Amino acid sequence: MNILKTFLKSIAATAVVAGLFKGAETLGEKYGVTAKITVSENGKIEVAKGFFSSGARDGVQRVISESKITSGWIERRNDGQIVFSDAFPPSMHQRLRNIIQNA
User: Rg for the chain (alpha carbons), in Å?
Assistant: First the structure.
């Protein structure tokens, strides 16, 4: 009887762990990064992941050149959110979002 209880507890624990992994996988799908732009030391941008239209790339490059940013990144996530590294001042975020979303 003890062997059966131990076996059932083991199965239950395995199911819980599997559920936790599935939950983490679902969060990764929701908040994962679909596209990323990085800024090099010379202020040039590079698409490190995914796709940004040429209009979006040109517009972001223009804003970065004007502001003299020399590092940082911009991510577009699976949920549509656009996130900026600390190198980008908050006053710049909405302008860059508009460029990326409307280009």
Answer: 22
Tokens 């996988």 locate to 25
Q: Side chain identity at 68, as an amino acid letter?
A: K
Question: Which residue in 94, 98, 74 sits closest to 85, CA to CA?
Answer: 74
82 by Cβ neighbours in 10 Å (0-12 / 13-18 / 19+) ranks as middle
For 28-42, 47-61, 76-90, which range has the lowest pLDDT when averaged over its residues? 28-42
pTM for the model stands at: 0.68
Where are the domains positioned within the chain? 1-31, 32-102
Q: Residue with structure tokens 């559920």? A: 19
What single letter denotes the amino acid at residue 44? Answer: K
CB neighbour burial string for 10-49, b if at least 16 within 10 angstroms, e if fewer:
eeeeeeeeeeeeeeeeeeeeeeeeebbbbbeeeeebeeee
Task: Mention every residue, 6+ apart, whose C-beta is less than 8 A from residue 63.
Answer: 92, 95, 96, 99
